[in-house]
Amino acid sequence: MAQAKAKERFELQIEQRSEFGRRAAKSLRRNGFVPVNFYSGGEEAQSYVMTEAHLREAMHSGEQIFNITIDGEQRRAMVKDVQWHPVTDKILHMDFLGVRLRDIIEIPVSIIAVGNAVGVQEGGVLQQPIHEVVVRCKGEDVPDSIEVDVSELSIGEGLYASDIHSDTFEVLLANDITIVSVVLPQKMEETVVEVDEDDLEFEDEEGSEEDSDGDSDKGSDE
After folding, report:
1. CA–CA gap between residue 62 and residue 60 (Å, rounded)
2. Phi, psi (5° rounding) for residue 120?
3. What sections of the chain are H helices per DSSP?
4. Domain map (residue ranges) of the chain
5. Cross-sheet strand order for the sheet of 104-114
6. Do domains 7-99 and 106-183 have the same CATH topology?
7. What is the per-residue pLDDT across 62-102, written as a single tens digit (0 to 9) for each?
8. Which of 156, 160, 158 is nearest to 122 (CA)?
9. Does 208 score more than 80 pLDDT?
10. DSSP per position, 65-127
C-alpha cells in the first residue's frame, strides 16, 4: 500500500563566513546571503553563508537530508532550525545538523497519495488529513517522501498509519490515525422558501371577489 521514494540528494553550496556581528549579518542579507551554522555531534558550530535563492531551492526540493561539503569532506545535513522575517518572509538565519549515515534520527517526511481511487470515480471525494509523518530511521535510510497507493479505495474506505510498512524506517504515529480516505461529497445546503400554492390561489380568488363586488356596487350606484 505504501512505499518510500528516494532520489539523488541535493547538494548545499556554502561559502566560508569571514565577518561576524549584527552589522555584518545585515550586510550579508542586503546582498542576498543568509548566515548559516553547521552543527555535528559534540563539535563546535561552524559558520558559513549561503545565497537565499539557493536556500529556498533546497527547501523546495522536497528532500530531508542534504549533501554538504565541510572542509573538503562530503557530509550529510538536515535542517535544525530556520529563522524567518516576520513581515517579509525572508530567511534570516538557518542551522543545519550533521547526520551520520548510521545515526538513528527522527525526521518529518511528506506523504503523497498516488493513483485514481475507485471511490472517486464513483462520485466520492478523496480526503488526506495527514500530509506529513515523523519517521525514525538511520540517516542513510531517510526517504524523501512516502507514497500511498489509493487506487483500490472505495467510498467509505481509507488507509491508516498501520498500512505504511517499511523495513528501513518506523512511522511515529498511532496505527489508527487515518492518512487518506474516500468519503461521500457533502451536499450544499440551500435555503428554500416554501410557498403554499393553495394560499396563493386563495389570495387570487379573494382579490377577484373583491373586484367583482366593487364592480357590482358600482353598477348598482349607477
Report:
1. 5
2. -70, -40
3. 22-30, 52-59, 118-121, 197-221
4. 7-99, 106-183
5. 2-5, 145-149, 104-114, 132-138, 169-171
6. no
7. 777 888 888 788 888 888 888 888 888 888 899 999 888 78
8. 156
9. no
10. SEEEEETTEEEEEEEEEEEE-TTT--EEEEEEEE--TT-EEEEEEEEEEES--HHHHTT-EEE
Cα→Cα distances 2→5, 8, 90, 146, 173, Å: 10, 20, 35, 7, 15
Q: Which long-range contacts (CB under 8 A, 24 or more apart) does 56-59 make?
A: 56/91, 57/10, 58/10, 58/12
- CA Rg value for the chain: 33
CATH class for the region spanning 106-183: mainly beta
Q: How many CA atoms lie within 13 A of 175 on its CB side?
A: 3
pLDDT at 135: 93
Cβ contacts of 62 within 8 Å, gap of 6 or more: 110, 144, 145
Name the region of 129 (left: φ>0; alpha: ψ -120 to 50; beta: rest).
alpha
Query: If DSSP codes are grouped into helix, strand and coil, which group holds residue 56?
Result: helix
The residue with greater pLDDT, 112 or 59, is 112
> How much is the pTM?
0.61
Long-range Cβ contacts of 185-194 (<8 Å, 24+ apart): 185/123, 185/124, 185/125
Topology at the third CATH level for domain 7-99: Ribosomal Protein L25; Chain P (2.40.240)
Q: Rounded to an integer, what distance in angstroms lies between the CA atom of residue 40 and that of residue 80?
A: 11
Contact present, 182 and 158 (Cβ < 8 Å): yes
C-beta separation of 150 from 115 below 8 A: yes
